[in-house]
Amino acid sequence: MKRLSLVLCIFALASFASTSALADTFTFDFSGAFFSGSGHFAADQIGTSDQYNVTSVYDGFVTSALGTSNIVGLLGVNTFQGNDNILIYPGTWGINGPKYFNHGGVSFLLDGGYQVNLNDTLLFENAVAGNGQGFNITELTFVDVDKQAASPVPEPSSLTLLGTGVLGLAGVIRRKFVA
Questions:
Q1: What values do phi and psi take at 164, rounded to 5?
Q2: What is the pLDDT of residues 67-91, one digit of tens each?
Q3: What is the mean pLDDT of residues 138-157?
Q4: What is the dihedral of CA 74, 122, 93, 46, to 10 degrees?
Q5: How is 62-123 classified by DSSP, letter by letter?
Q6: Which of 81, 141, 135 has the alpha carbon at shortest distance from 107?
Q7: pTM
Q8: End-to-end CA distance of the chain
Q9: Angle at 120 between CA 118 and CA 125, to 5 degrees
Q10: What is the pLDDT averaged over residues 157-174?
């Protein structure tokens, strides 16, 4: 009985280690006259299109005349400047270079409470920084986005489902041996 439980536990741990999904990771940087910044996006491709739903932003900062602020997280959809958090990769044609965002753009929060939206307006990439209270600075920016090699990201819900199934199976087998 103990050996069977040990075998089931080893099987469950081996299954957990091998189950993963691939998320796409992008590095980005932007620069303009008033502020600039860089960081990383994690995003999921939408179907087979060139559009990605940005799920997080991390390891980034924005520098302006006020100093440097760290990027602390992605803002929810339609939180700042009508953002939809859609990234277009490898980009579409634009006057000042490839366009990586649509009009809604991607918005994130800085540690000082300011918000930034990277978007496209009339073939130009823009960055909008503001405090969420109506005070915003908009400027034309040069944006560069590069796709990184895919990295495994665990799927917690799938792992939980597998784990509860293995525990249920262990319980059924244990009842048969006890009875």
A1: -70, -35
A2: 999 999 999 999 999 999 999 999 9
A3: 80
A4: 40
A5: EEETTEEEEEEEEPPTTSSTT---EEEEEEE--TTS-EEE-SS-EEEEETTS-EEEEEEETT
A6: 81
A7: 0.72
A8: 12
A9: 70
A10: 75
